[in-house]
Design brief:
Layout (H helix, E strand, L loop, with lengths): L2 E7 L5 H15 L6 E7 L11 H9 L21 E4 L2 H10 L3 H4 L2 E3 L21 H30 L1
Parallel strand pairs: 1-2, 1-3, 3-4
Protein name: protein-tyrosine-phosphatase
EC number: 3.1.3.48
Family: Belongs to the low molecular weight phosphotyrosine protein phosphatase family.
Protein backbone atom coordinates (compact mmCIF):
# COMPACT_ATOMS: atom_id res chain seq x y z
CA UNK A 1 0.00 0.00 0.00
CA UNK A 2 1.54 3.35 -0.98
CA UNK A 3 2.34 6.09 1.51
CA UNK A 4 -0.08 8.93 0.74
CA UNK A 5 0.76 12.64 1.09
CA UNK A 6 -1.83 15.38 0.52
CA UNK A 7 -0.90 19.08 0.39
CA UNK A 8 -3.63 21.52 1.46
CA UNK A 9 -4.03 25.27 0.96
CA UNK A 10 -7.12 27.49 0.74
CA UNK A 11 -8.63 26.95 -2.71
CA UNK A 12 -6.28 24.33 -4.19
CA UNK A 13 -5.25 26.50 -7.13
CA UNK A 14 -1.96 28.14 -6.04
CA UNK A 15 0.17 26.79 -3.20
CA UNK A 16 -0.98 23.20 -2.79
CA UNK A 17 -0.89 22.27 -6.51
CA UNK A 18 2.57 23.84 -6.64
CA UNK A 19 3.68 21.75 -3.65
CA UNK A 20 2.08 18.66 -5.18
CA UNK A 21 3.99 19.10 -8.47
CA UNK A 22 7.32 19.85 -6.81
CA UNK A 23 7.06 16.99 -4.32
CA UNK A 24 5.92 14.52 -6.98
CA UNK A 25 9.08 15.40 -8.94
CA UNK A 26 11.22 14.83 -5.83
CA UNK A 27 9.54 11.48 -5.18
CA UNK A 28 10.17 10.41 -8.80
CA UNK A 29 13.80 11.57 -8.66
CA UNK A 30 14.26 9.46 -5.51
CA UNK A 31 12.77 6.42 -7.27
CA UNK A 32 9.88 6.27 -4.80
CA UNK A 33 7.01 6.86 -7.23
CA UNK A 34 5.80 3.26 -6.78
CA UNK A 35 5.76 3.69 -2.99
CA UNK A 36 4.49 7.26 -2.50
CA UNK A 37 1.32 8.92 -3.83
CA UNK A 38 1.14 12.72 -3.91
CA UNK A 39 -2.07 14.74 -4.04
CA UNK A 40 -3.50 18.13 -3.07
CA UNK A 41 -6.74 19.79 -2.02
CA UNK A 42 -8.15 22.98 -0.54
CA UNK A 43 -9.83 23.75 2.76
CA UNK A 44 -12.65 25.33 0.74
CA UNK A 45 -14.49 24.32 -2.42
CA UNK A 46 -14.66 27.68 -4.20
CA UNK A 47 -12.48 26.52 -7.10
CA UNK A 48 -13.52 22.86 -7.26
CA UNK A 49 -13.11 21.53 -10.78
CA UNK A 50 -10.87 24.42 -11.89
CA UNK A 51 -7.30 24.09 -13.03
CA UNK A 52 -4.40 25.67 -11.18
CA UNK A 53 -4.03 29.46 -11.29
CA UNK A 54 -2.32 30.42 -14.59
CA UNK A 55 0.52 32.05 -12.63
CA UNK A 56 1.11 28.81 -10.73
CA UNK A 57 1.18 26.93 -14.04
CA UNK A 58 3.61 29.47 -15.54
CA UNK A 59 6.03 29.28 -12.60
CA UNK A 60 5.89 25.47 -12.50
CA UNK A 61 6.46 25.08 -16.24
CA UNK A 62 9.26 27.69 -16.27
CA UNK A 63 11.03 25.58 -13.66
CA UNK A 64 10.52 22.20 -15.34
CA UNK A 65 7.58 20.89 -13.30
CA UNK A 66 4.33 19.35 -14.51
CA UNK A 67 1.15 21.35 -14.03
CA UNK A 68 -1.82 19.08 -14.71
CA UNK A 69 -4.30 19.78 -11.92
CA UNK A 70 -7.99 19.88 -10.98
CA UNK A 71 -8.95 21.65 -7.75
CA UNK A 72 -10.97 19.91 -5.06
CA UNK A 73 -11.84 20.28 -1.40
CA UNK A 74 -10.30 18.18 1.38
CA UNK A 75 -12.89 16.03 3.15
CA UNK A 76 -12.73 14.67 6.71
CA UNK A 77 -13.24 11.14 5.33
CA UNK A 78 -9.90 11.39 3.52
CA UNK A 79 -7.98 11.14 6.79
CA UNK A 80 -8.58 7.38 6.77
CA UNK A 81 -6.73 6.98 3.46
CA UNK A 82 -3.99 9.62 3.83
CA UNK A 83 -0.79 9.13 5.82
CA UNK A 84 0.38 12.74 5.91
CA UNK A 85 -1.59 15.97 5.42
CA UNK A 86 0.72 18.89 4.70
CA UNK A 87 -0.74 22.34 5.40
CA UNK A 88 0.70 25.36 3.61
CA UNK A 89 0.03 27.81 6.44
CA UNK A 90 -0.98 27.86 10.08
CA UNK A 91 -4.62 28.69 9.23
CA UNK A 92 -4.87 25.53 7.13
CA UNK A 93 -3.07 23.60 9.86
CA UNK A 94 -5.67 24.63 12.47
CA UNK A 95 -8.62 24.04 10.14
CA UNK A 96 -7.40 20.56 9.20
CA UNK A 97 -6.75 19.56 12.81
CA UNK A 98 -10.30 20.68 13.70
CA UNK A 99 -11.66 18.66 10.75
CA UNK A 100 -9.81 15.50 11.82
CA UNK A 101 -12.22 12.83 13.13
CA UNK A 102 -9.75 11.44 15.70
CA UNK A 103 -6.66 12.62 17.61
CA UNK A 104 -4.62 10.16 15.52
CA UNK A 105 -5.89 11.83 12.35
CA UNK A 106 -5.07 15.28 13.75
CA UNK A 107 -1.51 14.06 14.33
CA UNK A 108 -1.19 13.42 10.57
CA UNK A 109 -1.31 17.19 9.91
CA UNK A 110 2.02 19.00 9.54
CA UNK A 111 3.10 22.40 8.26
CA UNK A 112 5.17 22.28 5.07
CA UNK A 113 7.79 24.74 6.30
CA UNK A 114 8.35 22.65 9.44
CA UNK A 115 10.49 20.50 7.12
CA UNK A 116 12.75 23.46 6.25
CA UNK A 117 15.27 24.31 9.00
CA UNK A 118 15.90 27.70 7.35
CA UNK A 119 12.23 28.68 7.86
CA UNK A 120 12.94 29.54 11.49
CA UNK A 121 9.91 31.05 13.22
CA UNK A 122 8.04 31.68 9.94
CA UNK A 123 5.84 28.60 9.43
CA UNK A 124 3.67 29.91 6.59
CA UNK A 125 3.96 29.88 2.82
CA UNK A 126 2.23 33.20 2.00
CA UNK A 127 -0.77 33.12 -0.31
CA UNK A 128 0.34 34.65 -3.63
CA UNK A 129 -3.18 34.82 -5.12
CA UNK A 130 -3.82 38.56 -4.69
CA UNK A 131 -0.24 39.60 -5.47
CA UNK A 132 2.12 39.74 -8.39
CA UNK A 133 4.13 37.06 -10.15
CA UNK A 134 7.08 37.40 -7.77
CA UNK A 135 4.84 36.05 -4.98
CA UNK A 136 4.39 32.82 -6.96
CA UNK A 137 8.14 32.60 -7.51
CA UNK A 138 8.75 33.11 -3.78
CA UNK A 139 6.16 30.41 -3.05
CA UNK A 140 8.04 27.99 -5.33
CA UNK A 141 11.32 28.74 -3.54
CA UNK A 142 9.75 27.97 -0.15
CA UNK A 143 8.12 24.80 -1.44
CA UNK A 144 11.36 23.56 -2.99
CA UNK A 145 13.33 24.28 0.18
CA UNK A 146 10.86 22.41 2.39
CA UNK A 147 10.55 19.49 -0.03
CA UNK A 148 14.09 18.33 0.78
CA UNK A 149 13.28 17.73 4.46
CA UNK A 150 9.83 16.41 3.66
CA UNK A 151 11.29 13.86 1.25
CA UNK A 152 13.74 12.69 3.92
CA UNK A 153 10.87 12.26 6.41
CA UNK A 154 8.71 10.38 3.90
CA UNK A 155 11.64 8.15 2.87
CA UNK A 156 12.09 7.23 6.53
CA UNK A 157 8.39 6.28 6.79
CA UNK A 158 8.45 4.29 3.53
CA UNK A 159 11.62 2.43 4.49
CA UNK A 160 10.00 1.59 7.82
CA UNK A 161 7.01 0.08 5.96
CA UNK A 162 9.16 -1.89 3.52
CA UNK A 163 11.59 -3.41 6.03
Amino acid sequence: MPYRVCFVCTGNICRSPMAESVFRARVEEAGLDQLVEVDSAGTGGWHEGDGADPRTVAVLEANGYGSDHTARQFQASWFSRVDLVVALDSGHFKALRRLAPTPEDADKVRLLRSYDPAAGDDPDVPDPYYGRMDGFEECLEMVEAASVGLLAAVQEQVEGQVS
